[in-house]
User: Fold Echinoderm microtubule-associated protein-like 5 from Ilyodon furcidens.
Amino acid sequence: MDSEIEQETQLTYRRQVYKEDLPQLKEQCREKHRATAMKKRERAPGNGIKLHFIHGYRGYDCRSNLFYTQTGEIVYHVAAVGVVYNRQQNTQRFYMGHDDDILCLAIHPLKDYVATGQVGRDSSVHIWDTETLKPMSVLKGFHQLGVCTLDFSADGKRLASVGLDDNHTIVLWDWRKGEKLSAMRGSKDKIFVIKINPYLPDKLITAGVKHMKFWHKVGGGLIGRKGNMGKTETMMCAVYGWSEEMVFSGTCTGDICIWRDMFLMKTVKAHDGPVFSMHALEKGFVTGGKDGIVALWDDTFERCLKTYAIKRAVLAPGSKGLLLEDNPSIRAISLGHGHILVGTKNGEILEVDKSGPITLLVQ
Assistant:
């Protein structure tokens, strides 16, 4: 198994101490202080500090968590903060509703709301507006330990989430009502991605360690069947294609698997090492891999139309610094506003112009 994926499959995000243990710890601390009967400070300081800018992005253990909003700003997450970055002005605005690290981010089809899922003993999903930075809905009381992946339905009404519990529980929500529509054990193996079928919202796929599963909603539950491909590889990313039965997934060995319903039609070699992120376009696909290459494909993955290597040599003059290394592992990729947006394992956010030059925005 690839070393990066191996490292990540070991991560459980379990902690000795969580934020809700704080009151108890503070109380213990106070008792210690009382014992020493320290002199109290008369009043709090008059000055405070305000968060102004966050350098970096969480790419070392997350994927496909970087998008353009409706207005062309860039939304992503780092630590417990949702960031909306304006690339023209180099300014940031923050969603600060979470109280622990965010692990995943999905964007609404209209690109005005995002959903973020966090770590925690009883972890929550927040759906918030990228303009006002106000929460529209907070989904709580279901996932233990954390939420590792999210996806909106094509009509934007439903949200699917996957927990970090031992069964990697899948929940389908009517997020505006804060209502759970159905819940199901996902798999014993870690799930890296969930996608709702854009044509048939009662169908979805999950993909992850040594599995690819095709689900459909029946009554209040979900029924899942494994895809047929002999020895199942570990899948790192997946998207639906140009019809309801076509699915494309990226493997840890650098292949793209092309599925019709649950059957593997063929595989195409796309990258050296894992394919960490892919994005479907109107007429084709874009993929990013551990090899530091961005590839543009036609709509059947038969032809690779163009590749861009992420290297210092092609950085545009306006870049805000240098790359830590050439060909960094690409963890997130998406398209919009005439550019390809790329997030790396080293915490860099780049914008690739279709003609070639690359601008480093955040690192």
